[in-house]
């Protein structure tokens, strides 16, 4: 018994001394972590609720293309790689099918857009203002269709998104003023142009309603193609006739729309910008077309964002302090009042909160 306890004590003493000697030879760094130990993932700062806008440098007279600086892309937290990898393998077949469907949808949209462009190029080769009138009549139709389907979904209790209704109405309001500008410039003076634009609009509305009900992603991509063509059309026109446009006065409807007192809807359709961050200056007809072109670029970005389900958000739905670190983007109090019946009965837009499910 005594012999056994003595041998055990000797073994423990030798092991302890050996362990101390090994530690003295290979000292571990202070930040060493045992790879076999299960540890919680490091803490991460929560994503800020502030708006990170997409900054776009639009075309000038001597530039070639629009340069877009994309905001950050949200990534998954470390520690979820195993789960995400397992899900990716399980859903690989469905992802391949979805990519194939998206490719087919976009191919159909590009084919339809190119077909319409060829028709317009043939009919309006040397007639700019009538062509713009037809384009603006067509360009605002999708937003009517989107709002119609969204109202139907809301009535049935299927899906409700206040931000979508607000932004799409603001987009239609912007396109309507583009149309009024073209009418003031004489783009609708010939009956054939009015006839063609109105009948294309009717067919386009019916097609977009069915397309949006079946695949909103496809409908938004088609509208993006239309807006992209409008941007390119106005840009080429500005480059070709810039000097001539600078010598002509701006239409009265353009001055009122771009420099008027209430620019809430003007800010609303620009979902990648902070409210009040863009205030155009209209001094001549050249400035009018530059701003119309810039509007089309904003429409393109909004339609691109809409192709991801639930990704669209009204710029006015962000908290005001979300723009504190962005100079010139604060909403002035005077511009955010809505008078009801008199000066004493007013409320702030910041208190007007539309519920979203």
TrEMBL record:
Name of this chain's protein: Ubiquinol oxidase
Family: Belongs to the alternative oxidase family.
Coiled-coil stretches noted in the UniProt entry, renumbered to this chain: none
Keyword Oxidoreductase: yes
Keywords: Electron transport, Iron, Membrane, Metal-binding, Oxidoreductase, Respiratory chain, Transmembrane, Transmembrane helix, Transport
Catalytic reaction annotation: 2 a ubiquinol + O2 = 2 a ubiquinone + 2 H2O
Organism superkingdom: Eukaryota
GO function terms (MF aspect): alternative oxidase activity; metal ion binding; superoxide-generating NADPH oxidase activity; ubiquinol:oxygen oxidoreductase activity
Catalytic EC class: oxidoreductase
EC number(s) per entry: 1.10.3.11
Any one of the GO CC terms: respiratory chain complex
Source species of the chain: Theobroma cacao
Cofactor(s) required for function per UniProt: Fe cation
Protein location: Membrane
Cross-referenced InterPro entries: AOX, AOX_sf
Cofactor: binding comment: Binds 2 iron ions per subunit.
TM region positions: 195-214
CDD domains given in the database record: AOX (cd01053)
